[in-house]
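Q: I have 437 residues here and want to know how they pack in 3D. Can you give me a structure?
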Amino acid sequence: MSPKDLLERDAKLLWHPYTQHKAAQTPLAIASAKGASLFDENGQQYLDMISSWWVNLHGHGRKELSEAIAAQADRLDHVHFAGVTHQPAVDLSEQLLELAGFVDKGRVFYSDNGSTAVEVALKICSQFWSNIGETRDSLLALRHGYHGDTVGAMSVGGTSGFFKSFEPWMLKVEYVAAPNCWWNSSTEEEEALSLQHLDNLIKNRATDFCGFIVEPLIQGAAGMRFHRPAFLKAVCEMARAAGIPVIFDEVMTGFYRTGSPFAFMQCDFIPDLLCLSKGITGGILPLGATIASPKLFDAFMGDSFSLALAHGHSFTGNPISCAAALASIHLLKTTDAQNLVSQISDSLTKKMTALVHSSSKIEKPRVLGGIAAFEIKSSNPDYASAAGKPLAIFAQKHGVILRPLGNVVYLMPPYCTTDSELALAFDVIHSYLETLE
């Protein structure tokens, strides 16, 4: 099929995510992928600098992953997970708990994606209190967080700016500010105000809150907002001291994105619930996982089904997805992912420093692990029409895939990305910024 025919059929049939179709550019028709690059039908190469929406860890076309999938499909493609088990799910649970340092200290609940992993965590928090005889009908969350598109996840991400149309459906949530820090910035005064606000909420309403959810270190969809480990530890310890379970949404930050296996490891705080997805399978199949502490799990034990967690998905614990995740974790170990991300981080830092010195049109540069971000100076805050959109169009024409968040431009490349590929991406960004000077 020609690219023209494909795009014509797409235009008649499909509804793309997070897209205003009236103003949208013609979608890019991708035919294949390898390493850090995507290719169209004509063989034109595009560097995937956003890891295909933050999911791809090792690069495209890894045979280790595809072979694991094929082998598992031949053995066992799928079976329901209520009253049934299988080796890939058990093996993966052991591997996840080991990677997170939770060996013999947690239970893994499988779902389908990041949003459902969060939904599971929120339900666990709510029912935990019900099971021990208390009613708590509100949640705590960091302001600007984004946690997914299902109702509970939307509720705790209600200040992200994406869900105004659904406000009547949302749960009760109180938000605590998370000051956005970047290179050479000071946020201690703002952090102190946030901590005071949380302290007041807890003193007056601690028994209202069933859980506290955060995106650790980086709030992704809000515009790659960074906050300090010390601040995160302080707010989480305050919640825990009041008996409120703490949820870390590491759907984006997990599996070395921030430099460590999980971002919570940089905060000296172990959450009660850990939500995982995106890179869990290396970015090639859907899978979500929610790790819960033994204390929370034990509250669901009893003689009555009313105490059980009445939640599940048809594809919970899918063997093929679990096999892909096992192969991905093996790759993380054998390729020394921590070192690969460290090298990418060094390269991003050097190139970001050079970009800052070469252009007066950017501000708030920041790098953490394999994630870099900056903001284009602009008076237009609108998400869809802000300054980042023309850059994305320019970059695609020059062989680089970016997807700015409003005025925020970020790079989150696969771990196989070379220094020369990063140099090309920054050269394209620099060329665009020169048109603004």
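Q: Anything worth noting?
A: DSSP finds 13 helices and 16 strands in the chain. The chain has two domains: 3-58+336-436, 65-333.
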